[in-house]
Amino acid sequence: MKYIIRSQKMENTDAIKEYIQTKLNKLNKYFENPDEIQANVLTKLNGRFQTIEVTIPTTHFTLRNEESNEDLYAAIDTIVDKLERQIRKNKEKINSRINKTFIQDFDQDLEDEYEEEEKIVRRKTIDLKPIDEEEAIIQMNMLGHSFFVYKSSIDGNICVIYKRKDGNYGLIETE
Fold first, then answer.
1. 17 is in which domain, residue-wise?
2. DSSP 3-state assignment of 142?
3. Lowest mean pLDDT among 68-72, 116-120, 164-168
4. Looking at the domain assignment, is residue 108 inside a domain?
5. 9 near 45, Cβ under 8 Å?
6. How many folded domains does the chain comprise?
7. Largest alpha-carbon pair distance within the chain?
């Protein structure tokens, strides 16, 4: 796996970079060609908490997770466990989808910013490729988000799938 490790409001020492790479190498066993995978890592300081964000775009899905802790090493351990859990949880669904049809690559910016005031602080541009509801749910879960915007492969309409408080899913369709 290739790594792009950046920091914000803090400096990553060589020891931290090495620790991140060593821990993320545990995920190599889940990828067919791990040398072609690139992990984007961002560490940042939020008050007394240190946050690590990891985004791993692949050909068929995008893994993303974020973890904050007072100890960056603890946050790194936790985020690798979360990513591994995401992969294992969705591995069967992803493999069955890949075998059924070609899944288009996503070309979207996945970093989130925390909002402190009620104003627009971040804008995203996403490339909507036609997918079905089941694939949208898989992508939403892989990203760790509570909603996902996609273009329906059935009618080409823009849709939003979201996770409800009762654990089920809701769908907003446009006309």
1. 2-103
2. helix
3. 116-120
4. no
5. yes
6. 1
7. 53
